[in-house]
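Reference record
================
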Amino acid sequence: MAEPAAPTTRRRSPGPTRRRAPGPARRRRPVPQPSGILLGTVLALLAGVLLVGAYANASFAPDRRDSVAGQREVPTSVVTGGPIISASSELVRSYRLPPRTIALTFDDGPHPVWTREVLKVLAAHQVKGTFFVLGSQVARHPEVARELTDGGHQLGVHTFTHPDLAELPAWRQRLEYAQTQLAVAGATGLRTSLVRFPYSSHPGAIDNRDWPVVTAAGDLGYLTFLNDTDSQDWSLPGVDRIVENAAPDGDSGAVTLWHDAGGDRSQTVAALDRFIPMMKERGYRFVTATEGLNLAFAAAGVDHRMDAATPAGTGERWRGRTLIWAVQGADRMLTVFGVLFVVVGVLTVGRTLVLFVLAGRHARRRRARDWSWGPPVTAPVSVIVPAYNEKEGIAAAVRSLAGGDHPGGIEVIVVDDGSTDGTADIVDALGLPNVRVVRKPNGGKPSALNTGLALARHDLIVMVDGDTVFEPDAVRRLVQPFADPQVGAVAGNVKVGNRRSLIAKWQHIEYVIGFNLDRRLYETLRCMSTVPGAIGGFRREALRYAGGMTDDTLAEDTDITIALGRAGWKVVYEETARAWTEAPATMGQLWKQRYRWSYGTMQAMWKHRRSVLDRGASGRFTRRCLFFLSLFGVLLPLLAPVIDLLALYGLFFLDRRATAVAWLVMLGVQTLTAVVAFRLDREKLGVLWVLPLQQFVYRQLMYLVMVQAVVTALTGGRLGWQKLRRTGLEPAVRNGG
């Protein structure tokens, strides 16, 4: 790809990079301030989705424990009786099926594949079954539940999440029944009076732990169904063994236990296809649960007829549908989170690899013995300092600039933008011969910069924030890249000066990793998006060509940098030009600063969006620049909370060890990136002890800032400039300490 022609031969850049003609100020829509209600609502919705997903996935359910409880409290008539139990606090009775009668019962469904395979076998042999369903499965597959009832099969409650009910308090037991009933009502319009407890078996296995569960269910109107034979198909013992396990002894009747979900049920399907005709040949009839119970009533001389299903009320049906929608929505959201987790992981690892390769290459090239921008640049420099109420740090900043060692001389222009704290008087009192003070009414930072640019005597321009302290050689080093006539702007190396507090240490790490390391990458890819306002060098011709500074965005540094890149100028990073800035000292101040940065960056991206279609250098630069800004500046920060959210979710509801390992791997990647960045920037590694803590507070704050900025942008609001409180840098820090 050929390099663009020299800047002096280029035409003026069209479109959004031009300065707006003077005229009436545009009306700005009010912007919502950081809203705790908005963020709280988002977090509450996410928490609700995750909790529904956790409950539906049985994440709260304890597994069955081995029991050593006796049977003293269980009536003998139950222990030695049949598998159908009608028990309450007042009356206990149990029933057996008549001889040569079999009820096929299935647990843990419905399943969209295996339940339908079971139904095909039952239909082929003209047999009806009884399906004890999990409410969570009904909510996920309501259409399968409807197929069961439409086909004449019966449904029973097998709880919502398959817990060991004996380990749960009474209210949780009732909730398990009620939620399952709602799911069944929402899916089929019916209620059921049949229940089978998870981990239950034959009547002789009921112990003192189980009995209160049975009687409590009876008090709620449920009939408990246990089993006479257990196919043990869940253990996949083979078709022959399943058939053998399910077959009753002699001619006795039997409630047989099978499973239509919970894993591969191909053996179950094959065994049923063999079991049913085999038992018919032995003279057995197949019945549903209540058909068998009614036969048992008749054999016992009980004048009563049982119907398992009754119509559900309208309200119950609608509540059931709401539950189904909630579970399905939570499942879909968890699936989305899982996909986003992978996306974030790929983006994070991919970004890290690209940074290692390209930033490392950049650093090695710059440190090569024969590296040079060209002949030494000794032309005089004009430094513009826009200042609004900067009394705390303006004196130190101006002294550091005026005393720079650039051999061509330094002119410092302090543009007092309507300060009310005596900023201009402080600068005047310094009495520095190469410093001029210009007073103007408050018009904003771009206006102050343009004023300084108009008054500057020299063609090399350095723009500096009023709270930034330069190292003595910073100006000299910053302008050396202008030896290359195609360089239009140079980004300097911004350092956090006030590093004593924890929040300042976090920002120091962020500056080294997130800003300075990225600039090495972006220079290599020729898509630098921001020359920092704290220390940036410009060629006057390039600024004029790009249209100067505008107030179209709150990120005037990003705006002008993109404009320069579109115009074909090279934007580079000079790591040896170091300046010290005062970072926000409180969370509130940090929020305001980053809110403005994030919002302003999105404004700049939107302003220059149409140039992605440009031909030539403008289009190539903009496509690269906006791609990386969108991917790593907006999309990744918006999606990154998924990592922490799923980590928190996993610690409570999934495999804790796997979750912890995954989180530690991500932390390891970040730590490795930090070490590389600090080594390249020649910074001490000692401060990295706060990096793990940064993941729990600072990173979450940055996520919320980005969310708020995106919401503001989507609402079409326009944020105003937010002045931060300054205290000034300590002298030791000003000297690089």
In short: The longest strand covers residues 570-581.
